[in-house]
Amino acid sequence: MTTGRTGLVREVEAALGEVLAHVRGETSLPCRIVDDPAAEHIVALRKRMKLSRQRFADRFGLDVRAVQEWEQGRRVPDRAARVLLTVIDRDPEAVVRALAE
Question: Are 60 and 99 in contact (CB under 8 A)?
């Protein structure tokens, strides 16, 4: 049995130290805020690209049913989907390139 701390333990301790310093107001941590797109925004994005729901979903690796429910306001995209939608909005070809075989 080893008694020394592993690299992982040291990393976790350092991260917890950063969190405590942030909570105490001693430091600020970087963050990214991803907007929660409204249904209208998702519809406008898709229509701006002149794509049907099916083609939009296929092109960007999304579930067509999820796109439909987002657009109709029955569901809200999770954080990963919001990030993907943000990238699609800003640089759709980056997503297409990333998903290309």
Answer: yes
- For 51-101, what is each residue's pLDDT tens digit? 999 999 999 999 999 999 999 999 999 989 999 999 999 999 999 999 986
Phi, psi of 28 (to 5 degrees): -115, 145
The residues near 22 (Cβ < 8 Å, ≥ 6 apart) are: 28, 29
SS3 92: helix
d(CA 7, CA 71): 46
Decide: 89 and 60 in contact? Cβ < 8 Å: no
pLDDT digits (tens, 9 = 90+) for 4-53: 778 888 888 988 888 888 889 898 877 766 565 688 899 999 999 999 99
Phi-psi region of 96 (alpha: psi -120 to 50; beta: other; left: phi over 0): alpha
